[in-house]
Amino acid sequence: FLFVSAVEVKIEVVIPEKERSKEEMSPNGKASPLVYKVNGTARHYHLEEHPIASNPYHNPKDVVEASVCHVKDLENGQMREVDLGCGKALLIKEGGEFYAMGHKCPHYGAPLVKGVLSKGRVRCPWHGACFNIGTGDIEDFPGLDSLPRFQVKIEKEKVYIRASKQALQTQRRTKMMAKCISLSNYNLSSTNVLIIGAGAAGLVCAETLRQEGFSDRIVMCTMDRHLPYDRPKLSKSMDSHPEQIALRPKEFFRTYDIEVLTEMQAAAVDIKNKTAVFKDGFKMEYNKLLIATGNTPKALSCKGKEVENVFNIRTPEDANRVVKLATSKNVVIVGASFLGMEVAAYLTERAHSVSLVELEEVPFKKFFGERVGRAVMKMFESHRVKFYMQTEVSELREQEGKLKEVVLKSGKVLRADVCVVGIGAVPATGFLKQSGINIDSKGFIVVNKMMQTNIPGVFAAGDAVTFPLALRNNKKVNVPHWQMAHMHGRIAALNMLAHGMEISTVPYLWTAMFGKSIRYAGHGEGFDDVVIQGDLDELKFVAFYTKSDEVVAVASMNYDPIVSKVAEVLAAGRAIRKRDVDAARFCLCRTGDMSWLTGKGS
């Protein structure tokens, strides 16, 4: 809620009317049983209901109000991080009005004041999440929570903010959600919405359904032992325990009646009878189905591939085990993929030696281009990583059943106590081959802009799909990014509810190595040139990927928030031409000025 008087500006957390009414109208039925898989048997535990927090202003002691600036201190289009004494807020001026909300991105805590303000939303400078400045709602991902919104008031030409102390401390807000009507009448082998896969796409789908007031049964099934977790951290923060990287605590699933069946592997889908069949013989009927099974890592096919201490990083247990085995030992990583490179970076300070084997000439050549790839390779070499390029593994040798050596086709023999394989993945869709659901020649599920398959009521999302990418003239693409999986899940949920919502988001990803990040937006597949601005040797650069005369993607290192800025331009449907990038070389590299992006292109 925002109001402006003739005199002063103040800020207060307010629950939007739409969300408040949702809470009031939510069914008050019994909490659902949360389902866990224990020793091969699905067990249902009835959990007591947890009340949802009510209006934060019921306790006056929780409220703080402070004068933060003069009305003339901010121009239109400007943001400022302001201190209220017990916490900070982000103050924004756009269209002559003031807005205030949380100042940190709920995803990983990025300072939003360093992000990009454009047409009523702020985009995070680190990973591209977007928040509506009027409501605080998350509009693009990654992350699950929205921002708290504070009340702004102007008195005597001063700007005041009124806020909940708790909201200032947490810097996040979970949108109000419906709850399920009593499940006591339901058949345990039947559900309204069945979600196969509990990654980002599956979880966001379930949450979005509840946010939109859906009050019927939702069941999620996963092969994992754990509730949904932050999968990118498996290679970026390898010693994290499952509870440390959980996307939501157990209590969340209890509160919002989202049932989860763990260690459940789908074996088939019967579209005629709307039934999913699982490997252990369990069957579940559905009304709407989301398939979000992700991918399966490729394994080595060489001699000795079954020896101990050879890993695909697929679970927190895998990552933890690798860290333990690698400490003060010799590590060989096969594949200079994002996973392979991140694992190499993480283990350098722990292992005695880290060697990386790759078929290409330089890492990331197809994705970032040769020049950026060589700069990254040089950074790794400065941290004692030894590369063996343009070769493959021919044999894994063991001693007493455990890995001892990795033999390369070049003839080189590497000492190895542990081996991590990161040579790509294939979509986990084998169980759909006889289903009638449209699968392409590579195994990807084909969906339209609403994440619908060719079968009514069946949707698919995440790494296992190809979908029309608006940015590339609706070309069918596979975009296996964490951010994109979130958006797929949201779009699928909205269309299960017949909202007619089409996907139009700009792909955004990041990789972290040695405390540095490369950020990337767009879809550069098939690029024919790379325009580099900045200094690759200093690892401070921007790379524009072009196809013909058009910029199709951008990557940067130590140049925030240019990738978020470009993402906003592309999201607005504006083209960036190669000539614009060339003409702006001086502005960007000498001064860091990105104003040339505004209004450019068509």
Describe this structure in words.
This protein has four domains: 60-170, Rieske [2Fe-2S] iron-sulphur domain (Rieske Iron-sulfur Protein, 3-layer Sandwich), CATH 2.102.10.10; 176-298 and 426-506, FAD/NAD(P)-binding domain (3-Layer(bba) Sandwich); 310-423, 3-Layer(bba) Sandwich (FAD/NAD(P)-binding domain), CATH 3.50.50; 515-598, FAD/NAD-linked reductase, C-terminal dimerisation domain (Enolase-like, domain 1, 2-Layer Sandwich), CATH 3.30.390. 19% of the residues lie in helices and 31% in strands. It contains 13 helices and 38 strands. The strands form ten sheets. It has a six-stranded antiparallel β-sheet. Strands 15-14-13-19-31 form a five-stranded parallel β-sheet. GO terms for molecular function: 2 iron, 2 sulfur cluster binding; metal ion binding; oxidoreductase activity, acting on NAD(P)H. Keywords: 2Fe-2S, Apoptosis, Electron transport, FAD, Flavoprotein, Iron, Iron-sulfur, Metal-binding, Mitochondrion, Oxidoreductase, Transport. InterPro entries: FAD-oxidoreductase/Apoptosis, FAD/NAD-bd_sf, FAD/NAD-binding_dom, FAD/NAD-linked_Rdtase_dimer_sf, Reductase_C, Rieske_2Fe-2S, Rieske_2Fe-2S_sf.
Write a compact overview of the structure shown:
The chain is an alpha+beta fold and 602 residues long.
Find the CATH superfamily of the largest domain. FAD/NAD(P)-binding domain
Number of helices: 13
Helix/strand class? alpha+beta
Average pLDDT confidence is 88
- Strand proportion: 25-35%
> Biggest sheet, strands in spatial order?
3-12-11-6-5-4
Would you tell me which CATH topology of the largest domain applies?
Answer: FAD/NAD(P)-binding domain
The proportion of residues forming helix, as a percent range, comes to 10-25%
Poorly predicted residue ranges: 1-56
Query: How many distinct domains?
Result: 4
How many strands in all? 38
**The CATH architecture of the largest domain:** 3-Layer(bba) Sandwich
What is the overall silhouette? globular
Q: Compute the gyration radius: what is it?
A: 25 Å
